[in-house]
Fold:
Amino acid sequence: MAVSREFSVLELEGPRLIAITAAVSGTRIAVKRWLTAVRPETVAADSAAAVGEWIGSEFQRAGLPRGRVVLAVSRGDIVLKQLTIPTSEAGTVTDAELAGIVRLQMRRQLTMPLDGTSIDYLPIGGPKLGSWSAAATSRIVMAGAMPADRVAWCREVTAKAGLKLRRIGLRCFGAAAVLAELSQRRAAPVLGLAIGSGSTEFVVVEDGVMTFARAVDIPRPVAKAEFDAFAEKVAVEAKRTWMSYRASKPGGDAELVGVVGEGELARAVGERCAAGLSCSWDMIGAPAYVEWPAHMPESDRSLAAPLVGMLAETVLERPSMDFANPRRLPDTAARRRQAALVAMLGLIVIGGVGFITADRKLGRLRTELAEAQQREENARKELDQFFVKHARVSHFERWAGANADWLAYLEHLGGLMPDRTSGQLDQVTARISATPAFSSGSGGAYLDGTWSAKTAVTFDLDGKVDSRQIASELRERLLSAGLYEVESQGPDVPDKFSIRLTARLPSPVPPASPQNSTATPKPAASKGGKP
Structure:
């Protein structure tokens, strides 16, 4: 079973703070707690210490954990560019070489100083990072640069809040992760929209991978009366986004617009954008592997959906950017360290031969033990199945084996009937029933127990008599026989009798008589009233 770990994702866009805490386990994300808050005017926006202390107090008030924190930043805080990396026809491009190439090209295109700037990248399409084949003449890489002062501000805010920063990622990548499943079902790219509290982000997702991103400072409306005007502005920017995307990558018109969120605002935006681009639209709440709290409002779920998507990147093992831990440049001293490590490895191998041999032997013994335990478990299962089948067969045999000596019973009852001149037996109905039972032994094991069956032989006697006294004498004789339980059937009438007899033995015992018995048998109890 996968181990569940809790992550907190927060976003501070303008004065609004949005944060969630989710448990990530295997391929499931369960949102446990969340908070939305607006920064008070007494907290200076340009003071990282003041903002950090306020965020820490909000985390404490909402009960959100402070470990494993992911910070989401807007697309507007990052310089994002697509780079074409040429490859050599004689060899391959490794990760270390690629980091240097990306940094060199970003230096040429950026206007900001690179000292302290956090630069990260990831390939778009093609093979994964590692060794790049020289079969292609160029590769497309998406690179991002976060200014040094912005990185320092984020680190100071999280430090003052008492948070353990694990990653600084882009909110647009979270929106792309939410739209990934939808785009993989489409032949053409999907234009996605993520409506934030202070800005709206547009992403183009193709085959589950974000290939284009853009942010526009259009704050989320609060009143319903502003929904139509907001949707109109977003529709215009959506058309501009698609035109910008097609300028860099020619192709056809948009096929689908996906709005990340729920509610009336997302519906209004989706309809306007679809009408402006002449395509269909869809409203994307969250992937199937995400579990929301039942009492979480729609507006909060819409704001938190891209944050959950950033955790989905971890669940889906999607490559993404991390400006807190960017990919490093080649290390020139790596060869000397590698030589030292090889020497230390040689010493460890020479000194640990005996330990390795013993460990291998121990491993074989553990394997044999595991196999023996598996065989024992299989044998126990087979034994349990045998006991079940044996119990069923024994139960059926006890039930089917019930039998009675009917002729002996009829002869015995004939001797107890009144004289034919004073009574007449009209009908005799007989049946037998068996109730199988199992008695466990002293140890409680199945093998120590025994199977038995309780047999019941029932006769229904109906007839006519000359007087009430003859019927009473008949019941008295049946009770005195000590073999039957006597029960009257129906009302007592002077000239008729209806009696039900129940015997517990498969064969009758000879009736007792004064000539061959020295003691009077004790009559059996009557269930039908007085004899």
In short: The chain has eleven helices and 20 strands.
